[in-house]
User: Fold this.
Amino acid sequence: MKLSYAIGLIYFAGFLDLLAVSMTIPMLSKHARALGASPSMAGLLSSVYGFIQLFSSPVVGRWSDVSGRKFVLVWCLILSAICYATLGMASSILLLMLARVPLGLFKHSQELSRAYLADLTPPSDHSHVFGQFNSISSLGFILGPIIGGHLADFDGGFFLLSLITALIFFINALLVLFLIPKDKSMTKHISSTRKSQLEEFHPLAFLRSFYEVDWKNVWDIFIVRFLFSFAVLVYRSDFATTLDYKYEASAKITGYMISYSGVVGTVSGFFVGRLASRYDDDAKLLLHTGVVQMLVMGAVTFAPNVAALALLLTPLSISNAVARVCAVNLTLDRGSASQKGVLMGLGASVLSLSRMAAPAIGGLSQEFSVSGPSIVGTLVSIAGILVLVLAPRGGVPPFKRATDTSEEKSL
Assistant:
């Protein structure tokens, strides 16, 4: 089977994954309120999921390092299908909350797919492959809410959406199981060490895997990933409120703005590989995208109208799409090849932490100013830039590493 065919199937699996999720999750808070949940309780449903993923992502990632990407991905898809079917049958807030717990434990298909792609492709192709995967997957996130919004209007709409979501996850599991091949290098690695690794895969050994990570080479990237993602999420978490309070935009305008931002990010993902090829290293590209993000977030604070805001959302969406790919690529390049899964899991945990903290900080900042989220995002982006510029890795500052690399290439 051709490698391009296998990669294309993983892209399609990522698309189905986000299509299914985005059909149901946007309707979750509305369904929770219909069951009698208060606004804070409805928000807690999302926080519970993020909190569990904060800890489960590295565990599942390590599991895939030990047992293989395909095996773990298939099981996570099947278990997610069962969880979504259970979610639709929940008849009380308590049952709805309990149904979110196993989803937080096993819904890691996006991270596992990226780790799978990292196994199948050489490091030089990672920027291109990850960018395309993010873009194709995001198409599902654009289409899903539209489909879900129409289906939710039927009687028992949320139950219907949950069953359709579960069916898509089950179909996705069959797609991965029967059509996507195993990575031969990964299979060889697993078969040669499976017995010893499986014997070591227990809680204490899992904790040891954190100590085995070469933190001196990756700690700064994890911090930057948190800061840059938090800066964007803190603004987007209160984006609808900002449009309402600051610009008195209608719900229709808000929907168009959110969709436009998603489309720009999706399209730009296809060009990340081409853009990365023009740079000497991903760290420099990540730094430049961080500067663009900081400048745009600052300009957003002073946007006089919705048209100006839409114009500014374009570079913000592009920089965010590029930064996501660069951060993942840097994490894999600097980490150990045998720990791709745990590194991807740790990256997902960082994003989960951002998703947990951003809504609370964004809401608190708006107590002081309607532009509070964009101000906070600007300041946090500056902090991320400073980490990239000043933080040493292996005892050598980043700007010194860049100089040394240039000198080596000139010799």
Q: What stands out?
A: The chain has a mean pLDDT of 78. The first helix runs from residue 3 to 24.
